Fold this protein.
Amino acid sequence: MQNLHKKYITETYDENGRLAHVEWHIPDSYNFAFDIVDEMARLDPDKIALLWTSDKGEERRFSFAELKRLSDKTANMFRAHGIGKGDMVMLVLKRHYQFWLCMLALNKLGAVAVPGTNLLTKKDFVYRFNAADIKAIVCTTDGETADHVDDAVPESPTLKMRFSVHGDRPGWMNFDREMEAASEDFPRPTGADATVKTDPMLMYFTSGTTGMPKMVIHNQCYSMAHLMTAKHWQNVSPEGLHLTLSDTGWGKAVWGKLYGQWIMETCVFVYDFDKFTPSDLLAIMEKYRITTFCAPPTMFRFFIKEGMEGYDLSSLQYTAIAGEALNPEVYNRFLEYTGIKLAEGFGQTETTCIIFNQKGDLIKPGSMGRPSPAYRVAVVREDGTEADVGEVGEICVRTDEAGGGVPIGLFMGYYRDEERTRQVWHDGLYHTGDTAWRDEDGYFWYVGRVDDVIKSSGYRIGPFEIESVLMEHPAVLECAITGAPDPVRGQVVKATIVLTRDYQPSEELKKELQNYVKKQTAPYKYPRVVEFVAELPKTISGKIRRAQIREESK
């Protein structure tokens, strides 16, 4: 192990061996592609950095030296077409390995990478191209995504070029041919073309649960902040093989498939697939001997329903979970199958992992863990004061100068939207919009989004607790808890439920589910309104649109 990361951080541990404090040493010239990947190519050129496979049986292994060579060629190709520092380039590449070449090349150029999902349609592309002045797009030709890009072109004046991956298209440049023809000599830029650590590097459009997507922009230091994500939450190893399931269009991809993993010299495993099939993924994990794994709770529910008894997952050493609140039932069942305790974490597109369970911690099923030593996280009341133990408040990150200022990894702001930025970031606090309570040991327990908390007859009721209870009932496949207007109580709890295939809607089942909640939690929390639906409304990223359910309940 080269211990490359140690030049950028000093870590202090407490008497129990738990990370307690971090101090960063990031030079002004820091650039992830040059200072981590290319440096690893110099120190350990043959070490495998990326192991890519597909559902068609394909496999490619990329060493750090190969990544340097191919990203240099990609950077030269982009530069030859006029892409330079500060330009916005959209990447819609599913889990194709070209994503990693583009990310590194754009980083070297000082351009801003804007990943997106292949689920976007014409309307989505038009909005994104114009909102961010996107100059170029690199897009998969698998499926209909590129058709939607073409449909958006007449309404997108800033889009100057399109690069296709996995096929030729009229009006598009073939990424692989263009890249292979480029020079593999790309010196580090100097002068005005060089990057500094405060330069923008990456931008994501949020999923937009309550309006048009916001543009979350991060600087160069964001990549280094994910050292905490990979080392102390996911517990990756330089000798290991790490799999994070996320598609490259979502922020979770760089949490688990790029930055922190390569800073820790870990091999990133990628399974490029279109349709998630639990049995296929379990077989892949068994075949390649995955050592660390990260996925949202929904995937573990699918694993458990599939039945895990026939798969050898003995190589698995550590498993992290995020993206939605963890149901204790999922935790317990996975522990029974594997002997591994799911380590929950919490963060947002605007942050890295700010709350998590460290290795060696006592894991409390259902708790997000404790704050990362890299952030000062607090549970805050509406008046800005800190909530007491057991009191529900908003999860906030302190950014005041007295406590050290803005921590690395926190976003620069919402691009071109100062007003929205001020709404969530003021008075020395970044407001996440998520609520939780803190127990006497400092563990955080998720309650819900600020807008999702239900106020009924003087009680504040968080949706997650009730959803967790309902998810344990065999009739419930998915559910969403929201508040519905009530003339007496102000609001009542409403459960919108998708049933498993063995159950049919009925008044008897409704009463059974209501009584089930009454027995499992405080009776006042039971859903007085129950609606059975075929599916829940969701955002393009799969998040439940509770705002839409609330609106339809009026």
